[in-house]
Amino acid sequence: MEEKMQQAGSVDRQQHADADIALGTLYQGNFIFMNILTMWNEEDKKYMEMALGLAERGLGHVNPNPMVGAVIVKDGKAIARGWHRKYGALHAETDALSSCKENPSGATMYVTLEPCCHFGKQPPCTSAIIEAGIAKVAVAMLDPNPLVAGRGVEILRESGIEVVTGLFEERARYLNRVFIKFITEHRPWVTMKYAMTMDGRIAAASGDSKWVSGEESRRLANEMRGRYMGILVGKGTVMADNPMLNCRTDGMRQPARIIADSKASIPEDSAIALSAGEYQTILAHTCAAPSDKLEILRRCGIKTMECPPSPDGRIDINALLQKLGEAGIDSVFVEGGAELNWSIVSRDLADEYFIFIAPKIIGGSTAKGPAGGRGIARMNDAVQLKTASAIPCGTDWLVHAFAARYGAYADICRREEMQACKEIK
Ligand SMILES: NC(=O)c1ccc[n+]([C@@H]2O[C@H](COP(=O)([O-])OP(=O)(O)OC[C@H]3O[C@@H](n4cnc5c(N)ncnc54)[C@H](OP(=O)(O)O)[C@@H]3O)[C@@H](O)[C@H]2O)c1
Hints:
With 425 residues, the chain is α/β, with parallel strands linked by helices. The protein contains 14 helices and 18 strands. The strands form 4 sheets. A 9-stranded mixed beta sheet has the order 14-13-12-11-15-10-16-18-17, with helices on both faces. The chain has a 5-stranded mixed beta sheet with strand order 6-5-7-8-9, with helices on both faces. The chain has a two-stranded antiparallel ribbon with strand order 1-4.
């Protein structure tokens, strides 16, 4: 067993070393950008890591844009740092250029995402980089946005700037997993979160669920809300808990609250309906919802979104996610309950999971587990996840996992954690 773990460790270390080397050929569309083997030096790694750290500061503030960080280095020292701080604000490159302590001409820019070359809310960063006289640009990952997709690098090279790509590419891709999915599939990244007891219940048999997890877990879960553009719950949770579903963490954005309620049956005096003037709220329903009730809820400030029904008469959850993507929502935080969770899990529509496990046992054969529905008949049919980490969180444990198709992201988390453990030692 120990030998196996050591072997796994050495594979991980090898992969980590490999990740530091940009292996020549990078394909994007029909272009081939590099055919050389680039070895990064310690300075490159230090500044790109710094840029990744800066990019992360945009978490929850830039959606549906990517998180991007940039560092400008001249004569061996960083003369500017920048990041995309807020949706619609300066991009990381121009944020860094505008904060230069000295003339950036001849400097190297480390940037976590390929500079854009098109007009959006901001003018193209490629022009700003060329005008500033930057001599070299190191890019962690190419931009999957079809409007850029390698063209940014090409434009910089055509103007005589040396461009190298691929340093910490995996980490940059992990950081922008929401953006990558949204820009390529036009569908939101789906993260499921729930709190359960050690005997696998999300509520007591009576329906009471206040509270399953401890204070620290609840604080973290509330802060997580602000990282997403939407929070999705089922009607049953609104009926049982009468929640507000807002983010109460200072400085974070309020996500849209989305309720799956086929027949529009949530009461107009529910906390959700009463606060719909203050917080964006979307009621997803089917054609079975009575039009007079929909009108009442609209008057409360709720936006209504009609979705096709699935064969069981409930909302077709796949179609709902598609519609949310079309409405510009790049990420959805699913907060249950059991029936809604199962609809999503059984179709393998959740990409990422945060599972809080509280050291409590409550029993009750009718107390709900995190995923209801009919379940599967054979273990072989289980939906497969890959665990990224399990860490203590106050009195609880927090398990972080990914759908098997995103196992590579779980591997990155594991490697990062191993690295952090080594650094602590
Ligand atoms: N511990 C936790 O983390 C946590 C989190 C959330 C909730 N909870 C607890 O979970 C319980 C509520 O769970 P629940 O399973 O009864 O309710 P739920 O999953 O919140 O809501 C289920 C209802 O949503 C509607 N719905 C619409 N489209 C659906 C779809 N595609 N799939 C599934 N449902 C759809 C259905 O009603 P219509 O057919 O009328 O549309 C369905 O009955 C409460 O006790 C709550 O406290 C615990």
